[in-house]
Amino acid sequence: MNDPEHIAAYVDAAAQLIGLPLDPAHREGVVKQFTGVANVARLVMDFPLPAEIESATVLRHD
């Protein structure tokens, strides 16, 4: 998903889906920010965790 064309398509589709008018003058900046977010997410997702790591407790307030 770090391909700039895919990210740009995602930004366009997401903006349309939620009804967000995206000014063409701001589109390049939004795509650039999403590219940065995708790069950080890739680092987090690629970080190896040992099998013995337990997942955190999920606390819910009802």
Description:
With 62 residues, the chain is mainly alpha-helical. The model has no long low-confidence stretch (mean pLDDT 92). It starts with a helix and ends in a 16-residue tail after the last helix. The longest helix is centred in the middle third of the chain and has 23 residues, at 24-46. 60% of the residues lie in helices and 0% in strands. It has two helices and no strands.
Write the SSE topology.
Elements (H helix, E strand, L loop, with lengths): L3 H14 L6 H23 L16
Helix pairs in contact: 1-2
Which key phrases capture this entry?
62 residues, mainly alpha, 2 helices, flat
Structure at a glance:
The protein is 60% helix and 0% strand. The chain has helices at 4-17, 24-46.
Computed Rg: 17 Å
- Give the biggest beta sheet: none
What is the arithmetic mean of pLDDT?
A: 92
> What is the 3D form?
flat
Number of helices: 2
Which regions have little confidence, pLDDT < 50, spanning 5+ residues? none
What's the number of extended β-strand segments? 0
Overall SS class: mainly alpha
